[in-house]
Amino acid sequence: MSRPRFLPDNFTLSLITTVVIASLLPCRGGVAVAFNGLTTIAIALLFFLHGAKLSSEAIVAGATHWRLHLLVFCSTFIMFPLIGLALQPIFAPLITPALYAGVLFLCVLPSTVQSSIAFTSIARGNVSAAVCSASASSLIGIFLTPLIASLIVETQGSAHTSVLESMGNIVLQLLVPFVAGHLARRWIGSWIERNKSVLRFVDQGSILLVVYVAFSEAVVEGLWHHMTLTSLLLLAVVCGVLLTIALVITSVAAKQFGFNKADQITIIFCGSKKSLASGIPMAKVIFASNAVGAVVLPLMLFHQIQLMTCAVLAQRWGARADAGNAKLAPSPRA
């Protein structure tokens, strides 16, 4: 029996199920403390395995394409925050301050890695540049995200830590395991390549674990008592508008700067997406535990909207590229 086209992917269904479980059966007390410790270990393992997965050759392969990487960097860490601030007077009064703080937080996050590369490949874009650009975005985001967040996200609900302390915590919990994994690649890299399902399990499992703990604490603090269905629908509209503006700007900018079609595709996908895998762990470090649930909710909605939208675009552009290549191919002799 084929899967219905309207049904979300398994991971999205797992996210929804996790939120429902956390809403009905939130962890409390000592159980919550134990789960918090477990999430810290899971996140460190996640970034360790990502470090082991990324090859030095992949970094070097796209590193010389500096104009493309600069444009993606500007889109990720300058364009998005400016859009979020520009939309604030329009949408902030319509949703709760905590939710719009989450919108601003997603605006300062790095680009996603796996899906940016996957969609670039499907659309016949510059894959090596996508690998380099998205990976560099994740590393730079470890330092820039808490810095920019301190400038544009309201301090309400923050963990009352300084920028340097937030950056230090992120470096310790995310960057150190990542670097350790990359250094260990010479010994475990081939095993990682043969067992990609392990990385996927740790990747998705750690996110689900953090989401459960975050929403448990938010539910205990009364998250759903202060949020209406209208707020959620308006939040989805905000995320849709944000993504649409980002896609249009990156598309126009890539054309105006004279990039070829393959590079344009890479810029659009890497410059318009935000990382759930990096965002949720960062939110756990930057914000107070009782605020993380509301902060990551916009990111979860944006993540699903960007996946559905970019999947359609990637399939369409890939089909066009294949059709064009077929026309250019010499016809076989009779």
UniProtKB/TrEMBL annotation:
Species assigned in the record: Pararobbsia alpina
Give any Gene Ontology cellular component.
plasma membrane
The residue ranges crossing the membrane are 31-49, 70-92, 98-119, 131-153, 159-180, 201-220, 232-254, 282-302
Pfam families, A to Z: SBF_like
Per its UniProt record, what InterPro entries does this chain match? Na+/solute_symporter_sf, Put_Na-Bile_cotransptr
Residue spans making up a coiled coil are: none
Superkingdom is Bacteria
Kindly provide the name given to this protein in its UniProt entry. Bile acid:sodium symporter
Q: Which residues form the signal peptide?
A: none
Keywords, alphabetical: Membrane, Transmembrane, Transmembrane helix
